[in-house]
Amino acid sequence: MLKFIKHHMDTIAGIGLYPVVSFVIFFGVFLIALLYVRKARRSHIDHMASLPLADSPSTETQAHARP
To answer: Which of 21, 46, 58, 61 has a CA-to-CA distance to 27 between 20 and 30 Å?
Structure first.
């Protein structure tokens, strides 16, 4: 089965480009996520961390809610 798939993949022209493109997209998304986390304010991170534990909406939670 693997030989069958590998043979057909080898016959496709330019197939070697797809792993490179997928790695670049993955690495780009990873870097964007890393930059977002590094630039986030500590108060925002603490607020987001406490959301699942809050019993009722606090004034801080209501301030971040969209109308």
So the answer is: 46
CA atoms within 13 Å, Cβ hemisphere of 29: 5
**Contact indicator for 13, 19 with CB cutoff of 8 Å:** no
Instruction: Please calculate the CA angle 49-53-58 and round it to the nearest 5 degrees.
Output: 90
Token couple for 58: 């606090």
Q: How far apart are CA 28 and CA 35, in angstroms?
A: 11
Tell me the per-residue pLDDT of 10-65, one tens digit each, with 9 for 90 and over. 788 888 888 899 999 999 999 999 999 999 999 988 888 888 877 766 555 555 55
Q: How far apart are CA 9 and CA 3, in angstroms?
A: 10
pTM: 0.56
